[in-house]
Write a structure and sequence with these properties.
The protein is mainly alpha-helical. The protein folds into 2 domains: 63 residues, Arc Repressor Mutant, subunit A, CATH 1.10.10; 146 residues, Tetracycline Repressor, domain 2, CATH 1.10.357.10. Helices cover 68% and strands 0% of the residues. The longest helix is centred in the middle third of the chain and has 28 residues. The radius of gyration is 22 Å and the shape is globular.
């Protein structure tokens, strides 16, 4: 008589765990891949390592992602590119001033991306993108262009509403992007971008950078331009 499955699991728990892990969902594979790509870089990460980290066989990994390149693209979409639908919807429903919107955008980016492991993907592309031009083009299409498009909409909103000065929108975008890139480099470069004794606070840095950008953009003094701090799309404090 064959041993019942639940008894077999108790007899050999290691085997049972291994068998269950063969059914790992794609999300678990992507999480393992994200960690390894950020830790080791794209070139140094092997598909076998991702499978081991996720607790599955290499064959199982390839059922979902036929190559390391496809795996990396899926990681980028899952953690960065796929977020722009949600963020554009928040833009559509935001009821506060554009200054509040831009401040909210920068703060939420830090909370949802910059503070997470996903922010290491940008540093990875900056260091390895030249060696993998197809992946660099993919990253531009899925992350850079949608991000710039959203920032362009925000800044243009402020100009159209008379809240911001008429500026060169395409170049102003980089004034917002630059501090975000700095924070990603700071987080994933052993904090080498700042002095140990500075007690660097990322949230305070974002607020200060938002002040600098908004002071340069605003058509009015800050006290009039930002009557209330916006905490979300509704503009509620």
């Amino acid at each position: 008589m064959p041993t019942p499955r639940f008894l077999a699991d108790k007899i050999c728990p290691v085997r049972a765990k291994r068998e269950r892990r063969k059914e790992a969902r794609p999300g678990e594979l992507l999480a393992a891949a994200l960690d390894l790509f950020v830790e080791k870089g794209y070139a140094a990460t092997r598909s076998e390592e991702v499978a081991v980290r996720a607790g599955v066989s290499k064959g199982t990994l390839f059922l979902y992602f036929p190559s390391k390149e496809e795996l990396f693209k899926a990681v980028v979409v899952e953690n960065l590119g796929g977020r722009f639908t949600e963020w554009n919807q928040e833009f559509e429903t935001f009821e506060g001033t554009t200054a509040q919107m831009l401040r909210y955008c920068m703060r939420v980016w830090w909370e949802r991306v910059g503070l997470t492991q996903a922010s290491g993907l940008t540093k990875l592309m900056m260091s390895e993108g030249a060696n993998f031009p197809e992946l660099a083009d993919f990253y531009r299409q899925e992350v850079v262009r949608p991000g710039h498009a959203l920032l362009r909409r925000i800044i243009q909103r402020g100009i159209d509403r008379g809240e911001f000065r008429p500026v060169d929108v395409d170049h102003t975008i980089y004034s917002v992007v630059a501090p975000m890139i700095f924070l990603m480099l700071w987080k994933h470069s052993a904090n080498l971008c700042v002095d140990e004794g500075d007690n660097f606070d990322p949230l305070k840095y974002i607020e200060m950078q938002a002040d600098v950008v908004l002071y340069g953009l605003s058509t009015q003094p800050r006290a009039q331009a930002e009557p209330d701090e916006a905490a979300g799309p509704s503009g509620a404090a």
